[in-house]
Write a structure and sequence with these properties.
heterodimer, A: about 625 residues, mainly alpha, Cytochrome C Oxidase, Chain A, two-stranded antiparallel ribbon, 20 helices, 2 strands, globular, disordered C terminus, B: about 260 residues, alpha+beta, Immunoglobulin-like, 2 domains, 5-stranded mixed beta sheet, about 45% helix, elongated
Chain lengths: ~625, ~260
């Protein structure tokens, strides 16, 4: 038993977490006692203990589970355990509940836990739509309702879309560039384990005194400054989810820059790798800003810093600027990896090279650069200086150009191809349709007078769900089906997959389409009841949303049963050229038994005799030629 | 079917789809009552945006459906690849340049609308708006009442006169939105924000708080009454006499809120 408590794992984590609570209690008691009776009448305060615990307990959990062991041994001067990769691979489902440094195990951990949060976030949406089916209904009370939509958005943004892309890329990206693992495997493991912590904090806020955080995922101050303690759960959870994002992004950047196989020049990288390169740049630059915005709120709440207290010189609009400086790029963080997935699928399933490969790569970088110049379009009605609206409206309109380039390139890739219309391809084509609608309403919202009418209405709810559900989630489903054989070694059920697609596609439009009209007609978002004239449309939307919820169950059923008992997958069921398809399904524990050499572009479909990578050791003169081609144009 | 004939058919289908979509876009009642000149301008902008968007969306869908129809894998093509087309610089320049010009044109037009909507007219009345969790109060200054300033929970505005609302908050951020006027702005603690509109249609319209302000946010509503200038002044006079006779003034004017 004692050995069990000393070894990294859940037992040790439990003990450490108790220690975290004790530390929080002692620390707050000490501070409150030493600062004297004048300031604090009671030395023990539940809120103070809880606030400090929210930081201490998750850290204690991470230490207990073993996320920091190596660095602690190193820092203490004790012999570190050399990485012999004996922990790589997962041999039973229990191995997924341990700290593991294998990028493929971490990829599955990421993806599966993200989908757990999709399920929870989706169920929360069902509760919201049940409340909104009738005006003035009492399915839940106003405080609970505000908590539901706040947790719904926060979970699905911070614990589903952002990490699920990191999860898929974690599995696929090192394989795609011919690397044996990520550059920093231990950091990779730690960044995964931060996520369940963030998720537990967000869901745990429902049990906090005063209920869950209820100020939206935007948590605008000063409302969030004075909200019940549940708000602190959000502020802290965002720190953990954000730290996870930053660590993963750094890991991707270093992996992509330093660990490409011989011959894999930047312009021979698959577009998924480009997309994650661009996304990681966004994450590394932008994420510290949301961390800052929530630290401000935390300091305001816990220690009375008055950052956002106008009566004491605080600046309320400052919160929004700092918040959106992250949260607009975040929209691209939630979209660019999906663009990468779609590029992979469309090239393989249309059996054609990606049309305009270089422009596809450059347009990603253009979105990164422009993405930092548009944040104040979320604030057209915020009361900020009026002139800022003009440049921000122009950049917001212009950022549609690189996105348009991508859509047109995908369409041109379809043209004259040989289209394999299986589930991943159907989701890719569905994505093109719904995402175009989301893009069009996005351009409309760049028009300031129009935005002044619909800002913060159901039109915005419709737009964001066309972009994030019709856009991101469609690409996620496409990617999960596409790489399911590679990740699990099993084939999914094609018939159920098609059912899932059609149900999703139809109900997405039925659910979110009518919301545009509600917004134009004057229905605000984030309300638990509404004027009588919106009744019919809301009932329709609620019914459609239940259909959308049920369609997801088809997906979960398909995935679970196929993973357990689907037919065995061959190494390359889609006849893809990129490197991940050149190894077995699932891949060997160390990815490549022989280091691949990349000799051509990733999408040379239809080019007679073209290959992307070869596994035989390249003869010396050819290796020199491959090195030279890093400088020259790729062979397309 | 030859590819020339199928292309012609697809083009005809696309044109028909555009025509139907345009017809539907005129048939749908997108907006609530058009109660201000600003609403007229904004609605026109919206219709232009919809008309510009329809051909783009139809183009995307047509290419997808045509590709699915003509280029889907037929039995026996399981191992066939498409032609190795890597790109076409002229086409790529075209679909970069055309959208850029189109977008800049539309955003330029939106700035014209914005300027017209926010232009300060020669004559204008001022009304103060104060937001607090979860109610609105309205302040009519002496320039409007012609006497003592009036504080009321009711919002009356005269038809045909530009009104500038000055928004102040007592606690958190709210947003003062009148959907029938098509204008809103956040009400921010610590600063005063403004918006203006010229009502042109008599009637009563909802006033909505459009920024999450706490538990009662969903029900933080009020009503704006657009009345003739004569009725407006009569209402002001009646409120002033009520305030003068009633003890405390505010409580009596607050009774009839809808």
């Amino acid at each position: 038993m004692a050995a069990k408590l000393r070894a990294p794992g859940f037992y040790r984590a439990g003990i450490m977490m108790l220690g975290g609570v004790a530390l929080a209690t002692g620390l707050t008691w000490l501070v409150r006692m030493t600062t004297g009776h004048a300031t604090y009448s009671h030395y023990l305060s539940g809120d103070a203990i809880l606030s400090v615990s929210l930081l201490a307990v998750p850290l204690a959990f991470l230490i207990g589970i073993g996320g920091f062991d190596y660095w602690f041994y190193w820092a203490a001067g004790r012999p570190t355990r050399p990485e012999d990769h004996s922990g790589h691979g997962a041999y039973s489902w229990k191995d997924y509940f341990r700290v593991n440094t294998d990028h493929k195990v971490i990829g599955v951990q990421y993806t599966v836990s993200s989908f757990f949060f999709l399920l929870v976030g989706g169920l929360i949406a069902m509760l919201m739509r049940a409340q909104l089916a009738q005006p003035g209904s009492h399915f839940v009370d106003a405080n609970t309702f505000n908590g539901l939509f706040s947790v719904h958005a926060s979970l699905l943004i911070f614990l589903f879309i952002i990490p699920v892309f990191a999860g898929l890329a974690n599995f696929v990206l090192p394989l795609m560039i011919g690397a044996p693992d990520m550059a920093f495997p231990r950091l990779n493991a730690l960044s995964f384990w931060l996520l369940p912590v963030a998720g537990a904090l967000m869901l745990g806020s429902f049990f906090a005194p005063g209920g869950a955080f209820a100020d939206g995922w935007t948590a605008y101050a000063p409302l969030s400054d004075n909200a019940p303690i549940g708000q602190t759960f959000f502020s802290v959870a965002v720190q953990f989810a954000g730290a996870s994002s930053i660590m993963t992004a750094l890991n991707f950047l270093v992996t992509i820059i330093t660990m490409r196989a011989p011959g894999m020049s930047f312009f021979r990288m698959p577009l998924l790798v480009w997309a994650n390169f661009a996304t990681s740049l966004l994450v590394v630059i932008a994420t510290p800003f949301i961390a800052a915005s929530q630290f401000f709120v935390l300091l305001d709440r816990a220690l009375g810093f008055n950052f956002f207290n106008a009566a004491h010189g605080g600046d309320v609009l400052m919160y929004q600027h700092v918040f959106w400086f992250y949260s607009h790029p975040a929209v691209y963080i939630m979209m660019l990896p999906g663009f990468g997935i779609i590029s992979e699928i469309i090239a393989v399933k249309a059996r054609k090279p990606i049309f305009g490969y270089r422009m596809m790569a450059f347009s990603l970088l253009a979105i990164v650069a422009l993405g930092f110049t548009v944040w104040a379009h979320h604030m057209f009605t915020s009361g900020m200086a009026a002139w800022i609206r003009i440049p921000m409206a122009i950049t917001t309109a212009i950022i549609a150009v690189p996105t348009g380039i991508k859509i047109f390139s995908w369409l041109a890739t379809l043209w004259r191809g040989v289209l394999h219309l299986d589930t991943p391809m159907l989701f890719a084509l569905g994505f093109l349709t719904t995402f175009t609608l989301g893009g069009i309403s996005g351009v409309m919202l760049a028009m300031v007078p129009f935005d002044i009418h619909v800002s913060a209405t159901y039109f915005i709810v419709a737009h964001i769900h066309y972009v994030l559900f019709g856009g991101s989630l469609m690409t996620i489903f496409a990617g999960v089906y596409y790489w399911f054989p590679k990740m699990t070694g099993r084939m999914y059920d094609e018939r159920l997959g098609k059912w899932h697609f059609w149900a999703t596609f139809i109900f997405v439009n039925l659910t979110f389409g009518p919301m545009h009209i509600l917004g134009l007609q004057g229905m605000p978002r984030r309300v638990s009841t509404y004027a009588a004239k919106f009744t019919d449309l809301n009932l329709f939307i609620s019914l459609a949303s239940f259909g959308l919820g049920l369609s997801t169950l088809v997906f979960f059923y398909n995935i679970v049963t196929s993973w357990r008992g689907g037919p065995r997958a061959i190494p390359n069921p889609w006849r893809g050229m990129t490197l991940e398809w050149q190894v077995s399904s699932p891949p060997p524990i160390f990815n490549f038994d022989r280091v691949p050499t990349v000799v051509g572009g990733p999408y040379e479909y239809g080019v007679p005799g073209a290959v992307h990578g070869i596994f035989a050791p390249a003869p010396a003169p050819a290796a020199a030629g491959a090195a030279a081609s890093v400088v020259r144009a790729p062979s397309q | 079917m030859t590819s020339r004939r199928s292309l012609a058919l697809a083009s005809v289908a696309a044109v028909v789809a555009v025509a139907i979509a345009v017809a539907i876009s005129f048939w749908i009642h997108w907006f609530p009552a058009q109660a201000t000149t600003q609403a007229q301008n904004t609605d026109r902008l919206y219709h232009v945006l919809v008309l510009a968007s329809i051909p783009i969306f139809v183009l995307v869908v047509t290419v997808i459906l045509y590709s699915v129809w003509q280029f889907r894998m037929k039995p026996g093509e399981e191992l066939k690849d498409g032609p190795p087309i890597h790109g076409n610089t002229r086409l790529e320049v075209f679909w970069t340049a055309i959208p850029t010009v189109l977008l800049l044109g539309i955003v330029g037009y939106s700035f014209v609308v914005l300027r017209n909507n926010e232009k300060k007219p020669a004559r204008e009345i001022q009304i103060g708006v104060t937001a607090q969790q979860f109610a609105w109060t309205y302040q009519y200054p002496p320039s409007v009442t012609g006497g003592a300033p009036l504080n009321s929970t009711q919002l009356y505005v005269p038809k045909g006169e530009s009104v500038e609302f000055s928004l102040r908050s007592k606690d958190v951020i709210h947003a003062f939105w009148i959907p029938a006027f098509r204008v809103q702005e956040d009400v921010v603690p610590g600063i005063t924000t403004h918006w203006r509109a010229t009502p042109i249609r008599l009637g009563s319209y909802p006033v909505v708080c459009n920024l999450l302000c706490g538990l009662g946010h969903s029900l933080m509503r009020s009503t704006v009454h657009v009345v003739t200038p004569a009725q407006f002044h009569a209402w002001i006079t009646s409120q002033q006499s009520a305030a003068a006779s009633g003890a405390g003034g505010l409580s009596t004017t607050g009774a009839a809120t809808g």
